[in-house]
Fold each of these.
Amino acid sequence: MNSPPPVPLCAQDYADLARARLDPAIWAWLESGSADQLTAQDNQQAYARLKLRSRVLRPLQGAHTRLTLAGQALRHPILIAPSAWHGLVHPEAEQATALAAAATGTLLVLSAQSGTPIETLAALPAPPTIWFQLYAQARPEDTLALAERAIRAGAQALVLTVDAPVNGIRNAEQRSGFRCPPHIRSVHLDGLSPAQARPTPPGGSPLFDSGLLDVAPTWDTVTWLRQQFPQVPLWLKGILDPEDARLAMQHGASGLIVSNHGGRCLDTLPATIEALPAIARAVDGALPILLDGGIRRGSDILKALALGAQAVLIGRPALHALAVDGASGLAHLIQLLRGELEVAMALTGCRTLDEIGPHVLWDKPGHGSAAAD
């Protein structure tokens, strides 16, 4: 008789169990970063370089993790990041993800490359709050149709991914031989017209002569989307530079998601937690900021909030937990992270999310020593 699998105690436990269960090629698709994967690795390692400042004997009565984000009341600052094809890791796919999100009061950002229609998730007996991720399509009318479909189905916000006009060079995924199986597809893109590359002339540029960049989104795309849906929150996902944060404000963004696409687009970008402080200074409270990339512990969430984020998103860890135990596994992971955040808050003397600031870090970036109260 086989012994039962170990009970996961943290996000890394779920990752280890998922790796043992998934096909190696699917694991490579899920985990691989761009090129040498330095940014993908540093997204996690950068948190270890930030040390926390313990505080004792602080009043903690009435502590909680509640917040309001874009007018929506949430139980905690953990969101599920958009990621494609959940059916690769669990047969119930995005339906399992949505069930876990609803059970834990977690906001779900549904990928445009989801294998399950948003209408199916919105029709669940107790659906979660859903935001919809957009990729700008080659034809503006397709982008418009995709956004309108999501809003009709009940999406509470649009999340435009802006950092991937082309795919990154993912050598680890290429080496694995990964191919998406025929039964998995991006259902929201059915009937839309993808960008078509022109044949490369002899000696020509493989990208610059392809015509693909001719239809890549620009700041004008953001302005146009804002005009099309003036009442719908429009978040920009993939902001890493303070100047782009300022431009986002000028072009009508409702909020920013600091992201390097999980290290999957351009290698040697900074870790998102390292980019966050400069973006927070550039925005100066004018827009809410979210962050993804490398979140594996509740203390990571605390550090992100300390440096200017209002909430965080988890991507790969959500799929790890889904692969291990479906909706139950993902709900358990979210509760683990929330519990770790609460412990970190208590031991740094923070009763609420509003009390978390740079003072919880031993060495505030740019200061070099513990802060005084």
Note: Confidence is low (pLDDT under 50) at residues 366-373.
Amino acid sequence: MLIGMVAGETSGDMLGAGLMHAIRQRHPQARFVGVGGPLMLAQGFESITPMERLSVMGFVEPLGRLPELLRLKRDLVTRLSSEQAAVFIGIDSPGFNLRLEQNLHDVGIKTVHYVSPSVWAWGKGRIKKIARAVDLMLALFPFESEIYQQQGIPVHCVGHSLADRIEPGQDQAWVRQQARAVLQVPETAPVVCLMPGSRKDEVQRLAPVFIAAALQCLVQKPDLQFVIPCANERRREQIDTLLAQALVDAPTARQAFLVTDGGSHQAMQAADLVLLASGTATLEALLLKRPMVVCYRLSALTWALARRLVKVPFISLPNLLAGRELVPELLQDQVTASVVSAEVLSWLDDNARQESLYDAFEAIHQSIRLDADQQAAAAVCQLLDEAAH
């Protein structure tokens, strides 16, 4: 049985790998072809192009890559239709995957979209497109299901696999101590984890501001330590370059920065606070019960378009899931070194504010801990069984 899958970024690769493993428990001979990352490749996935080629965010940025993306979509349709794929599963990356799902749906291949596009944020025009292209929507969060049910689109809320992998109710002091021992970070120093994103353009916009803010924080708190986990080797090279440029006039500050290959989980566990780009990492920080400052910065043109279209009061997952502001969000022009550093310092100095988040984070954790990999695999296999009869 051939199953097509496309994951466009690190978080999708993680979801895809978990789903592959769970499907193989039911169909051991299943083959998986499409676009995936290292976690999926480790399970025998056949990727026809590196996943990095799909990691483009925004409205305008993909236009420069349009010929390449159209060629990739055409190649995937040809391959999956000629080999009669049983089902195609698009994991997130809706700009690319929904178009691909429409083409595959038109030639009779069953289609699943894993991770609901933000139809609740961007208005409901997109829901009609989803209804035409998708046989099954796998949503991560309970609040997303209603809009699909209203439109008669089959939807299954599976929860989030990160919530399954991270144990709730852990002793946070002990966890922090263990993580710091592994990273060799001083046990008593204040530690901030910096996570400017996993995409090249995202890191280019946020990392210089994060590093500049860190240097301003060091003036107030000279014992501060910063840990920067890098999503992959290319981001490591990018971060190292940006850090070297920022430290030309402050070379002695280099000892305050620890750059690691991967290990975001451990870096967050070691930290008192996480400064990060809006995205899946905010959910990881929530599940690890870490206070955070969330930053969101797009190109000027994309931001101008987004401001006209976005229909929700929050952009970060912790606030969306809580339905109120739990963590601060700094948007676009607010993302400056002085504003970011002031926000970081205010959190580090307010233990009561940090501790007040714990119960809210714990409640959200429990609500999305639903055994996502198995739930998603069961829903996909049910779709296949229904198609066969």
Note: The longest strand covers residues 2-7.
